[in-house]
Specification:
Distance between the termini: 33 Å
CATH superfamily of the largest domain: Aldolase class I
Largest sheet: 8 strands, parallel, barrel
Strand order of the largest sheet: 7-8-9-10-11-12-13-14
Strand content: 5-15%
Number of domains: 3
Shape: elongated
CATH topology of the largest domain: TIM Barrel
CATH architecture of the largest domain: Alpha-Beta Barrel
Order of helices and strands: HHHHHEHEEHEEEEHEHEHEHEHEHEHHEH
Number of strands: 14
Structural class: alpha/beta
Number of helices: 16
Radius of gyration: 22 Å
Helix content: 40-55%
Length: 432
Amino acid sequence: MLRQQALTAAAGSSAQQLAELAFCDGELLRLVARRRAVQQALGLGLDAPQQQALARLQQETAATLELPLPTTPFFALVDAACAAPAEHRPSRGPAAIIVFKPGTSRDQVESLVQRLSAAGCKPLYLPGDERLAIGAIGDERLLASLRLESHPQVESVTLVPSAHKLVSRDFHPHDTIVNIGELPVGSNRFVVIAGPCAVESREQMTQAAEVVQRAGANGLRGGAFKPRSSPYAFQGLGREGLELLAAAARAVGLPCVTEVVETADIEVIAAYADAFQVGARNMQNYSLLKALGQQRKPVLLKRGMAAEVKDLLLAAEYVVSEGNGAVILCERGIRTFETATRNTLDLSAVPYLKQRSHLPVLVDPSHGTGRRELVAPMARAAAACGADGILVEVHPDPAQALSDGAQSLYPQQFRELMIGLRAIVTAVGRTL
């Protein structure tokens, strides 16, 4: 495979080239993350069945990369690349994608790479099995002056005009699958992440986790840090809430997602949650986005209340450009002149995002409508229009909820939602 040849050849590359390779290859990063999880788990005194399961995971990872594991030094090289300092990471997306003709040798590719480097551009090896391709980071006028399309081994040169280059399908034509714990988001499986708006108590979280897990949810949500419009509204339990969320998730075997409000909370949230959620109010909090880009856990990025789709993609670009390619986009409704619903759920954004970006897309029908009786029909519509999953608020007793009770489903309503979803998900060729 051409991609595999490029990856294997990287073993002799510089630290900067390795950093760029690891940065741009989302699939490789996911495999490395799985390997790290295996390594960490092996030190936890696991029983025999668990050790056997981890051994199978190691073999699967080795087979995927077509490399021996764990003897290959390649993982060590990529681990070093992932940990490279910020100055070794690409600061801009590729301005051009250069596709080579079939039969192009490694030496010929390297010759062009050196030419790009000498001209002040940064080359990036791009994933792909059908053709060997590289990206070029640099000023578009400089790239034009190199006349790359006239190179005898170059089949095509495509400029990537968008400002959100790294999250664009022009850069990465295949769907990216982001793993929240062991839950793949963006695959053929339609995911449902459900739970209360806010973590209120141990009893509440335990009940909520059991309800959503038994009904068929794949993930648990719950807010420990709550950015509220009113300073007098419930702001969450903080670290205690994280502990309760994580304990409830572990008890039912689900990964958990929670919101991060400021950079100071990243470290403590990373210790408990499987993914960071960036709420609508923080979609353009660029210091927070940059900090999350330096993490290795997924980021669920919600669209801002007054944000255009391109603003959401640019926000995702901030995270990806810092090195974290595990970003999930979320349409949660926008503010319009309509007052019948809390927000206007823009489902047209879902197929548009799927066409323009390789990142997975979720829909939040709870915040998108603000009314529990509208959540189920909009959830079904989300599945029908191509979303990769939904984020739904469920509370054991919404009438007593400390936040967003009006849009939270009762347990029975959530069970009915899951039953109704199955037919739609099956009709569009996916599984629930």
